[in-house]
Every structure is written in C-alpha cells, then in structure tokens.
Fold this protein.
Amino acid sequence: MLIKIPKKSQLLENQVTDERVYTERRQLLKSLGYIGATGLLAPYTANAINWFDDKESMRSSQTKLDYQQAQASTDKLTPEQKVTSHNNFYEFGAQKHQPAELAQSFKVTPWQLVINGEVEQPITLDYDDLFKRFTLEERIYRLRCVEAWSMVIPWVGFSLAELIKQAKPLSKAKYVAFETLYDPSQMPGQTSRRLGGGIQYPYKEGLRLDEAMNPLSFLSVGLYGKTLPPQNGAPIRLVVPWKYGFKSIKSIVSITLTEKMPPTTWNILAPHEYGFYANVNPDVAHPRWSQARERRITSGGLFAQNRIDTQIFNGYGDEVAHLYKNMDLTKFY
Amino acid sequence: MSTAQKVLLLKLTIHLCALGLLVEQYALAINDQLGGDPVKAIIHFTGIGAFNLLLLTLLVSPLAQRFKLGFLMQTRRLLGLYAFTYASCHVVNFLAFDLQFEWRFFLEEVFKRPYITLGMLAFIWLIPMAITSITWFKRKMKGNWQRLHNGNYLIVILVAIHFYWSVKSELIEPSIYLLATLFLLALRKDKLKRLFQSLVKYRKNTSTCR
C-alpha cells in the first residue's frame, strides 16, 4: 500500500478536464479553422507550434472495450494524451514523440500471437482471441522508466498467468521469452539506424517463469478503456509494473517458454547498464540516471511539482519481494 | 549597405532567433504544450541550443577569412553570450525543474556522473568568458584575455563528449556534432599547434626555473 500525502499544488481528480469536454473543445477550435493554419505552417514539427494539433486521427483507429473497471487508485492518472504521445518504441523512432507520428498506419489485423516452447499445449491466438479469450479487466499501474520518469496508466487486459496456464507449461520451463513483431516494411526503425537507435531487432524480453506467473504480470490490449494505439504496443503488450518500462515489451508475436535464461534486447546492447531483472530499485543507480527519485508525468507544464521518491519494486514490494528473497539485487539488477 | 548596417541587421537577426526561440520554448513548456515531458524537452532544447551557438562562434572566423567578410567578426561576442545564456538555462532547468532545487542531489549528480561533470566544467569556464566579454576587461587583460578565451576550444570538446555520453543508444546525432566540432577545430590546427607548443614550453620553463 502506497500512502501519499498530496501537496497543495497537486491537482485533484475533480479538477481534471473531462475527456468529452476536452475533445469537444478541440473540435470547436478545429471548426474555427486553426488546424488548417497550423497544419500549413508546420505539418511535422513535433514540439513547436502544435498548439491545436490533436490526435484525432489516431483515436479513430481505437475501439472501445468491454471490461471490469478497476478500483479507484490513490495515484492521479497521467493524462491519456501524454500516455499516447510520450513513448519509447524505437521501432518507430528513438525520440519520444516519433512513435505517435510514425506508427499510425501500423496494421494490427490480422495478428498472430503464438505461445510455444516447453509447453504441453501450444496456443495460437488471432486478433479476435486477444479480446475474447479472457475476461478483460482494468488495472491501474505505475509505469517507471529507467530514464527516471513515471506514469500512472489504466491498462485493460488479462493476467499473463492465465494464458500460460492454458498452454500447460512443462516442468522443464524456467523462463518466458517474448518477441516483438519484426516487419521492417511497417516498422522503419528496424532497418534505419537513425530512427531505430542502433539496437537489435526484433526486440526481445524475458521473465523468469515465477515472475511471469505472478498475479501482477499483465498482458494489456488497451488503455483508457479503448484498444491500444500502435505507439503503445498494439494490439497486445506486456506490463510488468515492478520492473523498468523496457521489460514491458510491445506488439508481441511470440511467447516462448524456455529452459535457459533468454537474451533480452537492452541487456545485449549494454549489459553493464541493463540487467535481465531490471527491478525498480532506488538504491541501484544507472550510470546515467540516479534511480532514487522520479518525475511523475502529469499535466501542469514546467512548474508542476511532480518529483517523488522512487519505491523499491516501484511500490509493489508486498506482492513481489518474495520472488527475490535470496538474491543480491545489486548484482542481479 | 554599409558595414555598420550589415552588422546591425545581423545582430538583430541573432537576437530575434536566439531570444525568440528561447521565449517561445519556455512559453510552450510552461503551458504544458511541449510534448509528454516538458521538463526534459526544455533541458534538451537549451542544451543543444547552447552547443549550436558555441559551434557558430567557432564558425565565424573561418567564414570571415574564407569569404573576406570581416564584419562577421563583430557578431562573435553576441553569439558567445547567447551560448552562455542557453547554457545557463540548461543548468538552471536541470536544477530547478528536474531536481526541483535539491542542491545536495545536484552536487551529487555533478560529481558522480562523468558526463555531467564534463558539462559542468564547460559551463564553469564559460562564466569568466562571459564576464570578461565587456570591452573594458578586454583592454585591461591584454594577452590574458585571449588566453582565457582560447578555452573555448577545450569547451566545445567537453560539450561534445558530454552530449555523446548522455544518450542511451541513438548515437548518430551526437556523432555528427562530434565530427562538426573536430572539423571546426581542424580548421585551426596551426593555431592549436602553436598554443600547445607554447604550453609545453611554458611548462619546461617553469620546471627549469624551480
């Protein structure tokens, strides 16, 4: 349980602009013709002069989901607009704003997700299965990036354990390996070093089987009540809230149960900076970022007071600390 | 157009671009219109802006020589001062908006992270350069003035490494900056060689006169 005493300057839930009002206001401005003018001035400037640039076009590709709503969270949610415009998805560009711009034509249908490896019952899920095979529920999780920022996001999806159980893991299975789609024709970062930041593709991640079976491990197919937009990992992504964000692999096409610890993308690139476990830990600094504090991405601009202490396991210690009981977390970072 | 007019026009343009962009970015950041993370955005903008301006100051004299545009030299101080302004904003942004004035943490970061240490060294050297840019100092300091301001050659190298070191994996942009830096320094290889030799000689002298 994370107990927080809100600062006076912090916004309350009831001060948040309702999404409907927000969209309507955009609509109004749009009908007044601002969009046309700014569009002409700077169609692709990401940070300057996009005051009225809404993300209408990408919303249209998202559909509403049926799900069990989460209990209210004590954390203030990160605005949806920021969740969908501030993304690390190097397949669509290494800068935070690029995925939202370059991923919009990404095709998620048809989709195939295979669950195989050391299992008795390999499974293949097609696009519709992702949404129909399990009862969808909403979970509000804190997402902590190794770059020392964090968000609070209402995901919609199902527990990873449920899926793995259906595949009936064999006793040999010790780890779970995940892979992102490899499709350079759709994901320009996979062939362009300039866009893709020079990391190896397809993106790979992994968990120990007991981590994957932990009730917190979640496969998300949506956020804010709608299907995931491509920049957030449509159609299906992993969410492991006690680990740094890069573990939460996006646009998954395969889940393979293995005997040996699988290679993982950031660990291959810089093993001294990114370990296999990547548990959020304020006491173990990254060479470039102290992990003691984080900046919560909220609304409010430059003067928002949003710097908070980082919790061990991102505040989920009660649920996951037992997984690492006899491990030296400074060594297995 | 007379030279004075040319210089005036050029200086006005520099003011308009450098100050205008800075004000615009801060206005956007304050109103939360600078992408998902306005704090990081403004830190990066001022950092890269300072570096751009530093490189511009180094570009002035080769351009002036090559194309016989002597009046360009009169814009160098202004560019340098804007580089200092941007660099100051960069440091203040980090302290004020990222660390929210946790001074102890700021000092820790400066000493613990080599890339921040380098950036800070570069910034500290810029301070006396900015102060002595007043003509009165230039006259007073004579040869020492040039010696102090030659520090710029070291500063750009520090800044280039600071940038290269600060990124996670996307090395292309910092590599281009590093190359541009080396190119601008290579244009001055004779001068740099002389500086280096006089430094060596100076050290020899001091050691024999002990």
In short: The two ends of chain A are 24 Å apart (CA to CA). The interface with chain B takes residues 46-48, 50-51, 82, 85-87, 90, 94-97, 147, 149, 193-194, 197-199, 269-270, 285, 287-288, 290, 292-293, 295, 297, 299-305, 307 of chain A (CB under 8 Å).
